[in-house]
Amino acid sequence: MTRKRILILLGSVCLALMLALPMVASCAAPTPTPTPTPTPTTPADPLDEPLEVFSFSIGSGGLGGTYYPYAGGWAEIINKNIPELTATVEVSGGSVSNVRLIASKEAMLGESQTDVAMEAYLGVERFEGEKLDCLRGLFFMYPEYVHLLTLQSSPIYTMADIVGKRFSTGSPGSGVEYTVHYLFEALGYTDDDFKISRLGMSESVAALRDGTIDVAAMGPTAVPASSIIDLASTHKIRLVPITPEDVDTLNALYPYFSAGPIEAGSYRGIDEDVPSLFIGSLVACHKDIQYRAAYEIVKAVMENLDYLRTVHVAANHTTLENGPNVKIPLHPGAERYYKDMGVLK
Fold it and tell me: Which of 19, 162, 225, 255 is most buried, judged by most C-beta within 10 A?
């Protein structure tokens, strides 16, 4: 075979191979393309999110006050109307303890005086250096009155008469302990002017009954307070007046309070209005509570106020219109509910 013939044959073979390669490639099994993992999407409306199932504690107060039974009422509303949530009411030291329990997430919800919640949120006064800006509001509860309680057999008729007497200023960490401290500080007194005990409401009533203290600061609490009703059923009681002038003096330093009477007939033996001071109260929560959970909690409470009012008459002040008046930022879920109801714009 001539050299020219060989080159022609080699060229033909190479051309045939080149033409065949695409055919081979086209017959090969295709490489599978990976299916992308879908990226979870957040619903445009947070109310479309599934409601998270969780259990939580509610910080309330002592057994002799209003916080504990009132909390029991709205906790029962939650448990009956929101199957995903389980609320348990805990006895606590009251407002100051509760906002700290919320901040530490030992209790995700709790009850508080509005002044305590404001100071905690801002990190001022009794919370200097302890800013609890994780607090959010859910709903206003009711006005709370300070009771300076003694027996009719006592020589105590005015706040000046308390000087030198055995005086219970409330349990440690309670709202009343701070309120009384503010009040007497504004009026020029110090702790050294009294023989101080730090007892809760039930303990104070027992101590008055037993004669181991002369006078007790009770509250701020809704009227009537069960522990005072209990004492008045066995002993003749007296409420020491806190005059509007005293409240003005207090507000010059701590502008949280309002003057108002504890009305005649609130307790057995109280036949005339007694001047006093009051402050608002609220249910607060941690900011990390799910948006929809906050919405559903407020919705359930507001739709079942008739039941809550059978638990305590103070709930007559718990209304849809009063709901947003909490003095600290509302939780976004609660705010959404009030907007949906037309209470907020």
Answer: 225
Peptide bond into 220 cis (omega under 30): yes
Question: Is position 46 within any domain?
Answer: no
Same domain flag for 154 and 244: yes
Which runs of consecutive H residues, i.e. helices, occur in the chain?
A: 3-27, 67-81, 95-103, 114-122, 175-186, 201-210, 226-232, 244-253, 291-302, 305-311, 332-340
- Token representation of residue 113: 């005086």
Q: How many domains does the chain have?
A: 2
Of 254, 279, 304, at which residue does a domain stop? 279
Which CATH number fits the domain that encloses residue 64? 3.40.190.10
**Claim to verify: residue 152 and residue 201 sit in the same structural domain:** yes
Boundary-marking domain end, from 279, 304, 332: 279
Judged by DSSP in three states, 97 sits in: helix
User: Residue 181 and residue 194: Cα distance in Å, rounded?
Assistant: 12
| Full pLDDT tens readout for the chain, 345 residues | 444 443 344 344 433 434 444 433 333 445 555 555 555 566 789 999 999 999 999 999 888 778 999 999 999 999 999 999 999 999 998 899 999 999 999 999 999 999 999 999 999 988 999 999 999 999 999 999 999 999 999 999 999 999 999 999 998 878 788 889 999 999 999 999 999 999 988 899 999 999 999 999 998 888 998 899 999 999 999 999 999 999 999 999 988 899 999 999 999 999 999 999 999 999 999 999 999 999 999 999 999 999 999 999 999 999 999 999 999 999 999 999 999 999 999
Domain with 310, as residue range(s), is 51-142+281-340
Domain for residue 34, yes or no?
Answer: no
